[in-house]
Design goal:
Blueprint lengths: L7 H50 L19 E5 L4 E4 L3 E5 L22 H7 L6 E2 L4 E9 L2 E14 L3 E10 L1 H53 L14 H50 L6 H25 L7 E4 H10 L7 E6 L3 E4 L1 H18 L3 E9 L2 E8 L20 H4 L9 H11 L3 E6 L5 E8 L6
Parallel strand pairs: 9-11
Antiparallel strand pairs: 1-2, 1-7, 3-5, 4-6, 5-6, 6-7, 8-10, 11-12, 12-14, 13-14
Amino acid sequence: MRRRFGSVRARATLGASLVVAVALVAAGAAVLLSLRFSLIGEAEADADSAARRVASQITPTIAYDKLELPEGDDNPVQIVDADGRLVAASEDLERISGTGTAAVKPEQASPAPGGDDDDDDDDSAEDPLEQGELSDDKKFTDGSATVDGETADYRFAAVEVSVEGKGDLTVYAGGSLESEQSAMSTALTSLLIGFPLLLAVIAAVTWLVTRRALRPVDAIRSEMAAITASEDLARRVPEPDTHDEVARLARTTNETLAALQASVERQRRFVADASHELRSPIASLRTQLEVGVAHPELLDVDGAVEDTVRLQELAADLLLLARLDAGEKPGATRVDLAALAREELSQRTRDRVEVRTDLLGVEVAGSRGQLARVLGNLVNNAQRHARTHVTVATRAEGAWAVLAVSDDGAGVPESEREHVFERFVRLDDARTRDDGGAGLGLAIARDVAERHGGTLTVQEAPGGGALFELRVPLAPRAG
C-alpha cells in the first residue's frame, strides 16, 4: 500500500480526488444553502401574505369570530392584542409555539362595540368598514403548530395593525416549512448518493489518464534500467510522438546517453592511445638498456636520454590532461602574455628554425603555467612544420587578448583544421617525422584555452603556412 501511494499516478489521483471532493462539498453546501434560503423565503412570503389578508379584515365594527381565517394546516393564524391576550385563532389549532403566545383558544368572545353579535351582519352592512392601519415592518420567527392532530414546522410572520376601538393588534400567520424540509431532504440525499459516485468516476478517470500519460515515463525507466544492467550505452530510450514534457525528457535523456557514450568512447581511445604511445619509448628504452647490460660498448646513451625525455614529456601531458578533465580551475593570476612569451622563448635554445616576435603587452587572468604550456605546444608544433621561421605575436582586439603563432610551412588543410585538436591525432606528414609528438600538444592547448574562457583556432597564415590564434578575455583593470 505504501509503495502504491508512493507512485506519481496514485498521488495524482489522490490529489485530484481531494480537490474535487472539497469543490463538491463547497458546491453542495452552496446549493443547499441557496435552496434553503429560497424555500424559506417562499414560506415567509406565504405567511406574510396570509397575515396581511387577515389583518386587512379587521375593522372597528367586525367581531373577531366573524373573521375569515385560513382553514386547515396551510396557514395557522393567531390574533393577539396589545396585552398579549389571544383574541382569535384558527379553528382547528391545537398547539403552537414561536408566536406571541402559546394559547390556542380565545379567552372570551369579543363582540363588536355598540351592538350584539346577532346584529353584526346588519351593522356591518349598514356602516361603512374602516380598515385598520397595517405596519410595513416584516418580522419572522420559527416555530411549530399542531392543526387537526398534525404537527409541522412553520415560519411565522407577525403583522401589526392598529384598529380604532380595538387598539394595537398583532396577527401571526404561519407559512409551512414542509416543502422546504422535503426539498432539503431530497437534495441532501441526492448529494450524499451522487457525490461519492461522481468522486469515484473522477478518481477512475484520473487514474486512467495519468496511467496513459505516464506510460512513456515507465518505458523510459525500463529502458534506462536495461541500459544500466547491460552497460550498453549505444541503446536509447523510446521517444513518444508528442510535444510535451515527457517527450522532451526522452530527448534530453538520449542526448545525455549520446554524450556519455561519446565520453566513454573518447576515454577508451585515450587509454588505448596512451598505452600505445607509452609502449614505444618504454620498449625502446628497455631494448637499449638490455643491450647496454650485455654489451656496454654498444649502449646508446643519447638515444636512451631522448626516450626518457620523451617518456617524461608524455607522462606530464597525460597528467595535465587528467587534471583538466577533472575540472581543475585555472586560477585568477594576472599574466602579461608579452612578458610570458619573452621569458619562455628566451629559454628555447635548440629550436630548428628562427622564432620572430611581435609582442604587445596584454594582461589576462588565469594560470601562468598552463598558458606557458599552450605557448610551448604551439611553438613546438610550428617548429615541426616551418621551413624558415616561426612568428609569435600578442595583441589586444576589443575585449580579447590574442596570442598568435604562425609558421611558413605547408599549413593545415581546411578539412583537418578541427581534427588536429583531437587527442593523439597527427597528420600524415607529421607521422613521418622522427621528432613528431604524441598528438597531445594541440589538444592540451585547446583544453587550456576553453578552461580560461577563450578559444583556440587554426587558419591559413597571411604568408602561407598555419596560423594558430589563442583568444582569452582581457583581465579587468586593477581597481
